[in-house]
Amino acid sequence: MQSLYVDVALALPAPGPFQYSVPEKFADQMEIGKRVFVFVRNRRMVGYVVGLSSEKSFEEVKDVDAVIDAEPVIDSELLALTRWMAGYYFCSWGQTIEAALPAPFRKGRLTMKSRSKKPTAQRDSVNPIELALTPFQNSAYESILRQIKTKKFHTFLLHGITGSGKTEVYMHLIRELLKESRGSIMLVPEISLTPQAVDRFYSRFGEGVAVIHSRLGQAHRVEEWHRIQSGEAKVVVGARSAIFSPVKDLGLIIIDEEHEASYKQEETPRYHTRGVAAKRAELEGAVLLLGSATPSLEAFHASEEKKITRLTLPERIEKRPLPLVEVVDMRRLPEGKRSVIFSGVLERSIRESLMKKEQVMLLLNRRGFSTYLHCSSCGYVMICDHCRISLAYHFDKEILLCHVCSFRAVPPKLCPGCQKNYLHYFGIGTQKVELEAARHFAGARLGRMDADSTSRKDSHETILRAFKNKEIDILIGTQMIAKGHDFPNVSLIGVISADTALHIPDFRAAERTFDLLTQVAGRTGRGDIPGKVVVQTYVPHHYSIQSAKDHDYLEFYEKESQFRRECGMPPYSHLIQVVLGGPVEKEVARQILVLARLIQPSLFEGRFRILGPAPCLTSKEKGVFRWNFYLQTPTVDEAVPFLKKAVQDFKKSRVTLTIDVDPQ
What we know:
Helix content: 25-40%
Strand content: 15-25%
Number of strands: 27
Low-confidence stretches: 117-121
Mean pLDDT: 90
Strand order of the largest sheet: 8-9-7-10-11-6-12
Radius of gyration: 26 Å
Structural class: alpha/beta
Number of helices: 16
Shape: globular
Distance between the termini: 53 Å
């Protein structure tokens, strides 16, 4: 009998795949896409069969230890997608395959016993009846549907202002696909994956919906995977990992709020969902639909260049007016009042809404913007020894906490720098706003939604349901309250600190500020109650704030794209971030200079630029010193060969190397 060999992809940071021989007893069971157990040195690992051969590539080849699956768990389209990802995002094929499968599959499991309740047990009925489309909605719907029926890949950008009914267009398209027994994937940012959003899809499509997100238990996630793979569920709603769902006869991928940074995976493989979705749609002849009220500059620029088709929804449903946005210049407050949380305008507006039994949302711009301990005598700030960032003071526990490594410390009575009693708490955090709101608005029922208050399972849903049921009068939170929600009784949004994100050293700072202010303004005035937004800022004339005030995306795009063009930043280039980390800072700095020099000879004809090297924004994290540089390139494909060659020639010692393509 002829010998059989398999190429096995392993989730190791090594190129691979690795060849193994197939014992005769497994020969009839071996298929591409199945999982196998193999030994790497003395460690038994799960591997993925990606190739079959009758020829041996190496002198010594180990045997496959066991075949796990009766049927392949990953099909040819997803194998092609994960192989492309490995090349584009600088990781191994096995690492990208593992990202595409539920976590228990990585341990050799295929089924798990779920203790979860039936998905429909606590569902609210939200718009179960299909709504008639407006002329603008119908025009967009017809254009996309025509393309879907051709079964040829194309990308659309649906630019619709907040409240213009993008979701209803999505649902009409999904309904048409279901008529032909074709599948759809609907992606939303994790923070927008609210019970309300999920209930809306269950109300319309029933048990044909599967939900994939990070709060799902592993057993429940495996159940959903099997429902999708069997064809029982043809509509997948989920966060970024749902892009890998094994949907049969895929016709449509929707990325709602496509501008959101949470579509970028921050761990290996560091993929951007938008790029992966485009590749998957291309491989499967599906349509990719990007939806947003504030499109990313990358997507809008592509539509300007006619690489994708832009469709517009310029009106709110029932022609409801956009909310009035009032900008409060905090610099004009009297000297002693500039540190207050509530300006007179915001305080009066909150009292008016509460008197009318209407609800209020208060937003702090930027996650992690919090109270810190500062000495007014010598300027000392309490920082984390392991991470080089300031420690945040938590009022409820009376502790200083590092938001990166969770280091805790008791606040000292005397300044560690000068031993004087001049320590004060500076900054504004959600807890401080909650305390001040309780003091100013006695009797109002308060809710807080941030990383601390939503750390427990289902706490996110509990808070939002309480707000929807009008059990909370004022909801205070970070950006997680700003997007994807539809609460008709909200008449006022207060933005406590609109400009904090503008001061971060990030070329996307203005874009993120504009996005957040526009999105949060869209949470009000969605019912019969007129909406109002009060924006407090120390830089009221910045174009991101003025454009958001006027609900004018095109004005913002013109000014921001001019800045990006002048400095050659995306969308006019691609960035690849190279990070070295290690325990000794001098050695990390020395080695990153060596690596940067290895790339220099390839920077021909001014096609590429190296920005840096320099310490990372968080230059020390969990005891590891971090330095980085950026490779600025017209296309990623052009830079990949040169960067790969440099990495191969680089002899690193006691440092870790991370490459992040299209960092956010």
